[in-house]
Amino acid sequence: MRKQRILIVDDESAFIRLLKLALEKKQRYTMRDENDPTRALDTARKFKPDLVLLDFVMPKAHGGDVAALIRAEPCFRETPILFLSGTVTRHKGEAAQIAGFEALAKPIALDDLLAAIDRNLAAAAAATGKKAVRLPRWLANVGEIFARRSGEPAKSERS
Fold this sequence. Notes:
CATH class: Alpha Beta
Oligomer: single chain
CATH superfamily: Response regulator
Mean pLDDT: 80
Radius of gyration: 15 Å
Helix content: 25-40%
Structural class: alpha/beta
Distance between the termini: 31 Å
Number of domains: 1
Number of strands: 6
CATH architecture: 3-Layer(aba) Sandwich
Low-confidence stretches: 133-159
Order of helices and strands: EHEHEHEEEHH
Largest sheet: 6 strands, mixed
């Protein structure tokens, strides 16, 4: 089974190293990182990630601008982007959002990060009809749940 590809874009190289080590231990992902947000799109084109972990506040480029550049590419329109930021405030029971993307507050608990990665990969898989990799049973219908919440008909309701 193919490992999911995750691109990490963050200007803090120490944070990237720790994040990569933690995620690589799970042996579920192939990782690539980019410290320079101005090169994030080129790195994404070469690596073709299934998901992007993107710092929101960086000195050379704003995370929102980088996300917009990535999403402007036709091949990345459905690629999930998770923002990582020290400026996000956690609200109990609610996922934080930045520019319409899920945002996780730094420092990030590994379990919370893994759950967010799995949730976003499952939603993208449901939206594109691709099979998701290694998802817990309770996440199996996440695409249907998101579709219902957004007002779109669920796959089972489409003709």
